[in-house]
Specification:
single chain, alpha/beta, four-stranded parallel beta sheet, 15 helices, 10 strands, 14% strand, binds pyridoxal-5'-phosphate
């Protein structure tokens, strides 16, 4: 039924709010037995790749676009590492309004670019990094009156709280640890707010530790200083100066959690393990939490038996190039049974 309808009581939705809906949310919380065993914990992946545009961004975008329309705005603009633009473009298309997206030139995964273009957005490649594109988008929004739908838009983070509510609704309680990739730091902040809201409502009686994972080359929250030239294959978290840094720091310190950095190599290893032992294909950024859990396990800092939810923020199909650079090629054979048998018998 979509996030606006399902969590109407908890969201700023009124009779005047247009019923925007692409059936986002209600994504599967997948228990991962083989990966759990490897780590000695109970590990669930919330597969946000099942959202309509293939990432968690849809949870907040649906509300941001609905409120923009309610306020009389007739176009949306955003800067994006890819998924925000795909999501904004999808919801704008569904409502028949223009969407302008600013992307760091050459640094967006192929699937995401294809999505924004297919949904009919005006795609603008900025010769600069994400942080610069965001500044430009803000200025452009101010000058034109377009609705700015980056996570500086408060409705984005409010809509994203729905992920935490779904986890609690499914588990019947909060996890011990909540592991999540951190880029612009909106999602970790939204989840923390969501858990706290459920706690206040008495729907859960304990809160999780918030464990935020960044890529080593783009880890301003881990090292406590902006990173002027962020670099990582996990393009969705290639951000050097997170807009919601203050909220994310509060989430981590209030919950007794931590920020941790993982290398690109560790992210790619985690992506393969998640796919080959979990049966779930998530994009590189989404695999930073699993990379982090593996790292904590190796250093003896992962408590035995705890329940961990990790947010698999985006679909692996969005970034086929990175995946294909990691794996082998198909085995080519002639169209004979002999050739096939050689492969099946491992000769
Ligand atoms: C946006 C995004 C992130 C980072 O989320 P923030 O709210 O910016 O911290 C992580 N993974 C994917 C796939 C994303 O699209």
């Amino acid at each position: 039924m979509g996030v606006l309808k399902h969590y109407r009581e908890l969201l700023p939705v009124t009779d005047k709010t247009p019923a925007v809906n692409l059936e986002e949310g209600m994504t599967p919380l997948i228990y991962l037995p083989r990966v759990s065993e490897r780590l000695g914990i109970k590990l669930y992946g919330k597969f946000e790749g099942c959202n309509p545009s293939g990432s968690f961004k849809d949870r907040g975008m649906v509300l941001a676009v609905a409120k923009a329309l309610e306020e009389g705005k007739r176009a949306v603009i955003c800067a994006s590492t890819g998924n925000t633009s795909a999501s904004a473009a999808a919801y704008a298309a569904s409502q028949g309004i223009p969407c302008f997206v600013l992307l760091p030139a050459g640094k967006v995964a192929l699937g995401k670019l294809a999505q924004a273009l297919m949904y009919g957005a005006k795609v603008i490649a900025v010769k600069g990094n994400f942080d610069r594109a965001l500044e430009l988008a803000r200025d452009g929004a101010e000058k034109t009156g377009c609705a700015m739908v980056n996570s500086v838009n408060p409705y984005r983070l409010i809509g994203q709280r729905s992920g935490a509510w779904e986890i609690c609704d499914v588990l019947g309680h909060a996890p011990d640890w909540h592991a999540i990739p951190v880029g612009n730091a909106g999602n970790i902040s939204a989840y923390w707010a969501g858990y706290n809201e459920y706690h206040k409502l008495g729907k859960i009686n304990a809160l999780p530790k918030m464990m935020g994972f960044q890529a080593e080359g783009a880890a301003p929250l881990v090292y406590n200083k902006p990173c002027p030239n962020p670099e990582t294959i996990a393009t969705a978290i290639r951000i050097g100066n997170p807009v919601s840094a203050h909220l994310a720091r509060a989430a981590v310190s209030e919950s007794g959690g931590e920020f941790n950095a993982v290398t690109d190599e560790q992210i790619l290893e985690a992506q393969r393990i998640l796919a080959a032992e979990g049966g779930v294909f998530a994009e590189p950024a989404s695999c930073a939490p699993l990379a982090g859990l593996l790292k904590l396990k190796r250093s003896g800092r992962l408590p035995e038996g705890i329940t961990v939810t990790m947010i698999l923020t985006g679909n692996g199909l969005k970034d086929p190039d990175t995946a294909m650079s990691q794996v082998g090629r198909p085995i080519e054979i002639n169209d004979t049974l002999d050739d096939l048998m050689r492969v099946l018998e491992g000769k």
